[in-house]
What we know:
The complex is a heterodimer of chains A (226) and B (113). With 226 residues, chain A is mainly alpha-helical.
Amino acid sequence: xxxxxxxxxxxxxxxxxxxxxxxxxxxxxxxxxxxxxxxxxxxxxxxxxxxxxxxxxxxxxxxxxxxxxxxxxxxxxxxxxxxxxxxxxxxxxxxxxxxxxxxxxxxxxxxxxxxxxxxxxxxxxxxxxxxxxxxxxxxxxxxxxxxxxxxxxxxxxxxxxxxxxxxxxxxxxxxxxxxxxxxxxxxxxxxxxxxxxxxxxxxxxxxxxxxxxxxxxxxxxxxxxx
Amino acid sequence: xxxxxxxxxxxxxxxxxxxxxxxxxxxxxxxxxxxxxxxxxxxxxxxxxxxxxxxxxxxxxxxxxxxxxxxxxxxxxxxxxxxxxxxxxxxxxxxxxxxxxxxxxxxxxxxxx
Lengths: 226, 113
């Protein structure tokens, strides 16, 4: 039996769409070729004749790929990125921030969970418990938008990435404001502890929530397997 | 007639043909092209390269919706059906074409040619 999916995929390789969308288009076009072939066979043509009939139509494949890509992607590349990364990331960040604000509103105090000599790390245990949910939200919406595994992971970890960026910016500004010596080992240690408390530990929770959504959904598996 | 106008007419008539067919029943790509060819007595023919971009365009505008379903042979096919927005669009589209053909008939007597 002729592999029509392979036949179309080889010719539509240049089409730049999300993997899910691309698979769907390839599957649909392959089904069309298969139908032409099967119809010819049902009319009594030999396999070679049926194959010839199915492939008779002169298709400008690069133009077809461009046309379909343009039609399917009218919102533009920027919107694809928004759908796959920025929006899911911001959903994750917003829910994490809102939850933290609610905790602050009810005067929930941070707890000291690590102590080493006189150094401590402050964390909000209840906020940490919510991290898997925030990570799951980011990764889920990214997968729904057709995001790659890396986009889903980044969307899930988005709250931690933003906090890491903020701490890094503050650290950089401090370094520029003062001579390197003035930043001091004490301050560096404070930043390191802040990174552990608000980036590293929450990341573990975010990652736990995001992990189930790093796999392909059943629909995507079905499309890829067909 | 300029190429641009010809292309617009071809596109508009193709859209009307597809929407009219889908208003009767959901069909998948190959069935749509077959039905258009058969129902027009072979006068209209859709090539794969023009059919699918058009279907995706109609879907993007929200006039049709595609859904994977098994056909009679048990093979998964993407069936297109008319959406409420597509149904709404069909009536004015038909009227536009009636006006167009009437005008053309008055000008060139095309229906009696």
